Amino acid sequence: MNPPTPDRDAHGAEAHLRALEGLYASAPVNGLFRSKLHLEEPGLARIEFNVAREHYHAARAAHGTLYFKMLDDAAFYAANSLVSDRFLLTTAFNLHFTKPMREGPAIAEGFWVSGKRRVFVAEARILDSEGEECARGTGTFLRSHIALSGLDGYAPR
Predict the structure, then answer these.
(1) Distance (Å, whole) CA 25 – CA 4
(2) Is beta strand 44-51 parallel, antiparallel or unpaired with respect to 104-114?
(3) Residue 112 has pLDDT above 80, yes or no
(4) Thioesterase domain: from which residue to which, for each copy (predicted)?
(5) Between the CA of residue 65 and those of 70, 105, 124, 127, what are the distances in Å?
(6) Is the dihedral of CA 34, 21, 153, 80 positive or negative?
(7) How many CA atoms lie within 13 A of 73 on its CB side?
(8) Tell me, what's the pLDDT at 10?
(9) What is the mean pLDDT of residues 87-115?
């Protein structure tokens, strides 16, 4: 399924994707969860991150907070890549754990599913360094009244 084009021209769409990557990098929470967002095209997001021992729960695997953060971010940015004027808000997120994450590199991939105006649905999955799925989730995102242009870190080039 091809995602809709964002509400900008092709040059503006590219600038919007780079600005969203800057917005992600500027978020203070990413100091706790080091990661890098890549937006190659509207409707798709990829986050590279490392699972560290500091993310572990008592049974020596990644705590659910790491799963949720990366899945929510990947799905959110896949959806917000289609909206160039407003920040989206997560209104619901359903998460399924499929495999414990251990120390090492991982990737969260987000995919736009539906919605073009007010409500967006996107899915995400986490793959470990061996390409095995560790979790998947589906989020619902609502267009807010928060202008992207007013957010620190969002600066179209």
Answers:
(1) 25
(2) antiparallel
(3) yes
(4) 62-135
(5) 9, 17, 15, 16
(6) negative
(7) 28
(8) 53
(9) 97
Q: Where are the alpha helices (DSSP H) in the chain?
A: 10-26, 64-80
| Cα 125 to Cα 133: distance, rounded to the nearest angstrom | 7
Handedness of CA 137, 118, 73, 75 (dihedral sign): positive
Q: Which amino acid is at 72?
A: D
Query: Rounded to an integer, what distance in angstroms lies between the CA atom of residue 9 and that of residue 112?
Result: 19
Ramachandran assignment for 136, one of left (phi > 0), alpha (psi -120 to 50 degrees), beta (any other): beta
Domain 10-150 - what CATH class?
alpha beta
Residue 74 three-state SS: helix
**What is the distance between the alpha carbons of residues 69 and 79, in angstroms, rounded to a whole number?**
15
Q: What is the pLDDT of residues 67-91, one digit of tens each?
A: 999 999 999 999 999 999 999 999 9
- Give residue 81's region: left, alpha or beta (phi > 0; psi -120 to 50): alpha
Residue 89 near residue 76 (C-beta atoms within 8 A): no
Domains of the chain, by residue range, sit at 10-150
Closest CA to 48 of 128, 106, 110, 132: 106
**55 three-class SS:** helix
